[in-house]
Structure formats: C-alpha cells, structure tokens
Amino acid sequence: MRLRNRRRTEWLVPVVGVVGRSGVGKTTLLERLVPALRARGLVVGCVKHASHGFLADRPGKDSYRLFESGASAVALISCDQIASFWRRDGEAGRDVSLADAMATLPGGLDLVLAEGFSWEPIPRIAVVPENEGLAVELVQAGPLLEIVTAPPPTAEFPPPFPAALIQRLARRLAARTRSEGRATPALADIAVPATSTH
User: Fold this and answer.
1) What is the tens place of the pLDDT at every residue in 20-54?
2) How distant is the alpha carbon of residue 139 from its chain centre?
3) What are phi and psi of 149, to 5 degrees?
4) Chain-centre distance of CA 57, in angstroms?
5) pLDDT tens, position by position, 111-142
6) For the domain with range 15-49+96-185, which CATH number is right: 3.40.190.150, 3.40.50.300, 3.90.1150.10, 3.40.190.10?
7) What is the per-residue pLDDT across 163-175, written as a single tens digit (0 to 9) for each?
8) How far apart are CA 80 and CA 144, in angstroms?
9) β-sheet with 144-150: strand ranges across
10) Which helix (H) or strand (E) holds 173?
C-alpha cells in the first residue's frame, strides 16, 4: 500500500508532525500519545528525523557485519518484528524528506506521527518550553493544530505531560483521522449522552 500520492503532495494516510527544539520533550509526548491513540482503535506509525545521524544496528551482530561488508541493504525478520536498513548511496549530504521516511512504513496505518520535519507542509503540534514563546520556524510550513507547553525536565525524569492533555490530543487526532475516512470509532470515542435531571 502506498502512503503518498506520487503526483500530488497529499498523503494517503493522515500525517501529523510533532515539532520543537531538541530536548524539549517531543519523544516523551509521543510515547504517551501513541498508547492513547491505540486505545482508540488506531493503528499508528511514527517517523523520526535524526538530524545527527544514527547507528541502525549494534556492532558485532551478524546483521551489522553484513551491512559493514558492503551490502546495500539488510533486513531482519523474526516472528514479531521486521527491520530493514539500507545505504543512501549517492545521496550523501542530501537531507531525508518526509516522503523518503513514509516510503519505509508498511501499509495499513491509520495515522503517522512525524517527529521533526518542521519544514514539511503538514499539520503539526508544537512543543515549546515553559516560559518561552513559539518559534516562528515551527509554524511557517504547515498548519498549527496545538501548542503544548513542556514543563522543564528534571535530572531523573523527562518532562511530564498531564494525562488530561494526552487524552485531549488523542481525542482530537482520532476525530481528525476518522474525518479523513480512516479508522472506525473505538468505544473510548463514543460519547454517552448525559442524563438530564430536568
């Protein structure tokens, strides 16, 4: 299943960015948000922009050795996980686009949350530190859905995000996803009418 219409810039699966400066708590927010979306019946994918590069495997493992031997691509598969990585030969210095990242995801997703990619024209949630204003570059490329204020992290813990905030964001994203024709309502999203006492 393709996740993007190649002739147009529209995505075939809803994509929402989570943007903010490094260390502000974007990953922590996503760690809390993904389970809340899954509880609402959504199949969620995530992509993360790694601006400083990354090591896809552990030195000494067989898959690492195969990649280091010069293989252009290596895939690992077990009964419950699949991972693949490949070289971007001839693309050194060219930053990855969201389209490149989306092309690596499987079909069947209801929603993709993209951490980073602030330059892409996608709707976004901006995470800003307490006592700081919203940086203009975070909202120039795409529509702003929400501003989330991140309390300062402590030495032992990442920034805490209130459960009510997580549930509100999950409700909003689930409704947005369903309005675009994806996913079926989950019990957590079905409103029960209040009993009137009049």
Assistant:
1) 988 889 999 999 999 999 999 999 999 998 765 56
2) 17
3) -85, 125
4) 21
5) 999 998 999 999 999 999 988 888 888 888 89
6) 3.40.50.300
7) 999 999 999 999 9
8) 36
9) 44-48, 111-115, 15-19, 124-129, 144-150
10) helix 163-179
In the chain, the amino acid numbered 154 is: T
Give the SS3 label for residue 69. coil
Length of the chain (residues): 198
CA distance 15 to 182: 12
CA 39/CA 45 separation, integer angstroms = 14
DSSP reduced 3-state for 174: helix
Buried b (16+ CB within 10 A) or exposed e, 14-51: bbbbbbbbeebbbebbbebbbebbeebbbebbbbbbee
Q: What is the pTM of this model?
A: 0.78
The first and second tokens of residue 93, run together, are 């210095």
User: Residues of CATH 3.40.50.300 domain(s) within the chain?
Assistant: 15-49+96-185
Query: Which distant-in-sequence residues (6+ apart) come within 8 Å of 52 by Cβ?
Result: none
- Residue 155 pLDDT: 64
The DSSP secondary structure of 91-126, one letter per residue, reads -TTPPPPHHHHHTTS-S--SEEEEES-TTSSS-EEE
